[in-house]
Amino acid sequence: MTRRVLVVDDSLTVRMDLVDALKRAGLDADPAATLDEARRRLAAGRYDAVVLDVMLPDGDGFEFLGELRKTPATAALPTLMLTSEAEARDRLRGFGKGADDFVGKPYDAGYVAARVRELAAAGEELSPFGRPAVLVVEDSPTFRAEMVRVLDGAGYRTVEAGSGEEGLALAAGERLAAAIVDGVLPGIDGAETIRRIRRDAALRALPCLILTASGETVDEVRALESGADAYLRKESGAEAVLPRLAALLRGSAPPEAPPVRSLHSRRRLLLAGRDGAALEEVAAKLAPDGYDLALARGPEEAANLVGVQPPDAVLLLDAEDGADGCARFRAADGGRDLPLLLLAKDGDAAAATRALEAGADDVLPLDAGAPLLRARTAARLRRSQRADERREAE
Question: Which residue blocks in the chain are alpha helix, DSSP H?
């Protein structure tokens, strides 16, 4: 049975964007522009998840969430909140009302769809006899629809993506049996999409078939060198995919929960400090890398948010007590193992050493330029990923 999702947002662009992304991810999605419309839809039918904007023209999303939690029919309905506010206090308020997750605007539609799939499926076991899930990454709606028709008719469950970036985001949150990737895509092409799959510990064993409209041998060689397991020309038609796909799946292990988190999952960063202007400045420098950013006004608020929505890394903005702040954060529940970067005003080498000894993983100037800040943050996240992979291999 296809899961149904209600998307509640007053922006027509956001509603249509998310409805399209959710449908490509194999979910039924209905839009609602107001809370009143959302109430009518919920009263008229069953939903498996809700995507809910925080600010709506006829009310507060948080208060509506509280209303859902007090109603027996919707008390356990998984709810993902969308917000343009990065303040930790707003997220804490939402979690206090019963939110299951938060995603900040601007959002990545593929990531939202993948996260909603996870929430809607929470608590359900994947049967070994269930329909194998196949990711179809194809920018042509016509050819993609034909692929879906053929695969569904053959007993597969399809997950659709219109670009390589969207396909990677969906793959990061889905237990897939195989991927079928068009060679020519907007943004990163099919070969690069498969290279990124092969570099990802959570996805690298995924059987991949690449499609192309070209008949050149050199293109087949390039596709296979990218890490694809099989190659098929589009002129052969969608039906020709079935025997190739069956051959790929023969002898393959059934999909399991990935040992580590995918590199292509959207990363959450928590920025903590008492200077609001400095927090906003650092957030603006990091924004181009697509992180989900939350801003905490002080260590207590940061520790509270870590308890309900653990980030992938914490950036602590120092006033004068960098080493003490690092030590307090490490001592807090949930703060012991998170990557911790200190952005310090004081350029004194001795102060940096004290901060490292107190638990910081890296120290850099608070006024560091955007390129350095982004590079050091990305490097720390990569080290954390590699550490997860090593622990899994032990």
Answer: 12-24, 35-44, 61-70, 88-97, 109-120, 141-153, 164-172, 190-198, 217-225, 241-249, 276-286, 299-308, 322-331, 349-357, 370-393
**The 79-83 sheet, strands edge to edge:** 28-32, 4-8, 49-53, 79-83, 101-104
Nearest residue to 6 (alpha-carbon basis) of 18, 105, 17:
18
CA 191/CA 185 separation, integer angstroms: 10
- For residues 128 and 195, what is the distance between their CA atoms, to the nearest angstrom? 28
Mean residue pLDDT of the chain comes to 83
Pairing of strands 55-56, 59-60: antiparallel
Q: What per-residue confidence (pLDDT) applies to 145?
A: 93
The answer to whether 32 and 24 are in contact (CB under 8 A) is no
pLDDT digits 0-9 by tens, 51-91: 999 999 999 999 999 899 888 788 888 999 998 877 888 88
Residue 220 has pLDDT above 60, yes or no: yes
Residue in 326, 323, 278 with CA at minimum distance from that of residue 299: 326
Q: Is 155 exposed, middle or buried (0-12, 13-18, 19+ CB in 10 A)?
A: exposed
What is the spatial order of strands in the sheet that 208-212 belongs to?
157-161, 133-137, 178-182, 208-212, 230-233
Q: Which of 246, 239, 301 is nearest to 270 (CA)?
A: 301
Give the whole-angstrom CA distance, residue 2 versus residue 24: 12
Q: Fill in the amino acid letter for 261.
A: R
**Amino acid present at 349:** A
Spatial distance between the Cα atoms of 155 and 163, rounded to a whole number of angstroms: 24
328: helix, strand or coil: helix
Q: CA-to-CA distance for 374 and 320, rounded, in angstroms?
A: 23
**297 neighbors 274 (Cβ within 8 angstroms):** yes
Q: Token pair for residue 290? A: 């697509």
Distance of CA 312 to the CA centre of its chain: 12
Backbone angles phi, psi at 124, to 5 degrees: -90, 140
Pairing of strands 49-53, 79-83: parallel
Verify cis geometry, omega within 30 degrees of 0, for the bond prior to 128.
no
